[in-house]
Amino acid sequence: MRQQRYGFGVLLVVIGSVFLSTNGIMLRNIEQADAWQVLFFRGIAFSVTVFLILLLHYRAETKKMFLAIGQRGVWAGVALGLASFFYVFALMHTTVANAVFIIGSAPLATAFVAWVVLRERMSNVGIVTMVISLAGIGLLFADGIVDGRWFGNVMALGVVATFIVYLMILRDNLDIDMLPAACLGGVVMAIVGFAGAESLSITAHDLTLSLAMGCVQLTVGFMCYTIAVRHILAAQVAFFALTETILSPIWVWIGIGETPSRLAMVGIVIVLMSVTVYSVMEMATEKNSI
Fold this sequence. Notes:
By secondary structure, the protein is an all-alpha fold. The protein has helices at 2-20, 23-28, 35-58, 62-68, 70-93, 96-103, 106-117, 124-146, 150-171, 179-196, 204-228, 234-240, 242-256, 262-289.
């Protein structure tokens, strides 16, 4: 039974990662819409889809579930909405590879913040891999400065920072279903997009892609990750979620021929190896503690 639960959990993470990994190629296929417009329609689609899922699941209790998340849940929604804002701008202002591998360092960054703020345990291996991954991120930033794409890299760091806040709130409220917070996150995306957009008039092609990102891509990805956490260890989720980080630049390479520079490749390898080593070590630690 445990093996079946493990296999099911891993399968969910991989499926979610595959869906989320198409973000880059879909954004690269946007024809005319700017980041603000994409963010607005993406946020509306995501929020409505998650709300309908909550309504189907909780029915008359839906309002109660929204109230249950409290003020912390609202802040979690704000953090998730801002993370999506930074994510869209990151992918639109730097290479997909640079953005996703900076964002891919989130498990290490989250562990570091939990160590400093929540006083959670962080092994010596975790500290070392965190320092090494910073060197890799430094190379990605150096590459961004050389190519004039530093803004996109800064936006990618914004994703890491805001997503850490989101995860910290979730980890401190494990007894509450925080899916309503994700729904609020979609509302925040839409509000930010509306505030920045000069016009909401976009082509049918761009509207279709934006709605697909919200209704299908984000929703399936988040739902798979949420369910997977109930079946496998947190470190295992982080490890198998690297599927998204690896696939994202492959899709844009196949689709439009976008490739990272040699300097970026060195940084990518450093970040990937650091997160992999950390995740494997954490999996061993979590298994021993069960």
